[in-house]
C-alpha cells in the first residue's frame, strides 16, 4: 500500500502540459509504456493528475463515486458551458438536476426523435453532388447541429433559428485545432480585449448565444403548448420533489452543455464511422446486406427503432466509439476523503482521471486493438470498466442513448441511399479540438452515386 503519488512522469510540468494539449493520445501511450497503466502527471500550473488505465482500478473508482467531487474537477469547462451546468455540479444539486434532465433522453421519447433524425440526415445528404468532394465531419456537423436545434432547442425555422445556427457553428469552430484549443488550458490567454483577442471573440459569441437562448426561454414561458416534445419544453415542464422548476440560468447552461457534449461528439464519431466503413469495403457490404434485409426502402416500411437494433450496425458503432474516443480521459475525480484505488492510498484532494483511450487499446481486452473489428462486440460482452465511451459511475453521459441512436440512424440512412468513397487514400489520425478529439482534415469523401 503506497501513500505517495504513483509513477511520476519526470519531464518538466510545462512540457507535459504542451504534450497533453498537442498530442494527448501519443503522450498517454509513451507514458504508459514507460510507467505502466497508472501514472502521475503535473500539467503545468494545473494540479497533479493520476491517470488510470487499469480496468480493475477504474471499477473501484466507479464503485466509490460518492467519495469524489467530479463537478469541481471540471472547472476548466466553465467558460464554455457556464456555472449552472450539470457537469460542474456535485452532491444533492447534481442528483436533483440529473433527475430533472433524465426523462427527455430515454424511453418513449427516443421513438419521437428517431424519425426526425432520419429526416434531417436525408435533408442534408440530398444536397450532396455526385463527383463533388466534401468533408465528412463538416457534413456530420451540419446534421448534428440541426438535430440539436430541432430536437433539443425545438427550433426549425425563423430568425432566431437562423441566428443560432450561424453563431453556434462560428463559436464551436473557434477551438478547432490544438493551437486554438490552448486558450482553454492557459489562463493567461483568457484575456478579454474585445474583438482584438480570441478570448474576447469567444466571450462575445457566448453572450450573443446566451441572449438568443434567453429570448427563446422567455417566449416559451408565455405559450401553453402541452404537445411539444423538444427537450427544452420538457426541461421547462419538469419539477423537482419540492415542485421547483429549473431557473432560466440553469436551462440556458444545460442547453449549452448539451450542445458541446452532444453536437461535437456525434459529428466526430459519425465521421469516423464513415471513414472506417469506406476504408474496408467488406464491412460496408455486410452492413448493407443487414440493412437491406429489413426491407427495400429503408424507413418506408421499417421503423427507425428497428434499424437501431440491428446487431452488426450496433457493433460497427460500438467499435467506432472504442477506437476513437472523443475525450482523451473521462471526467476527472477529486477525492473528498482518503481513498484506496488500485492498491494505492490517495489523500483527499488527489485528482484521479480514468483514461478511456488506454483501456480501449489494451491488447489483453482487445486483441489487435489498432484494427477496426466490429465482430469483437458480437463475440464478447465487455464490463462497464472495460468499455466506457460515455463515461461511467454516477457521471455516465445523460444523453448516451440518444447519442447512440443518432449515430446508428445517421450511418444507416446515408449508407442505404448514397454511394460514397474516400477522396484521399491516406490514414486519418485524431487531433485535439477543444476538449475533444477529431479527425485531422475531417475525412474527405466524395459521392459516387445513389442507391
TrEMBL record:
Its cofactor is heme. It comes from the Bacteria. It holds the Pfam family p450. Heme binds at residue 397. Keywords: Heme, Iron, Metal-binding, Monooxygenase, Oxidoreductase. The keyword Magnesium does not apply. PANTHER family: CYTOCHROME P450, CYTOCHROME P450 12A4, MITOCHONDRIAL-RELATED. Belongs to the cytochrome P450 family. This is Cytochrome P450. It comes from Pegethrix bostrychoides GSE-TBD4-15B.
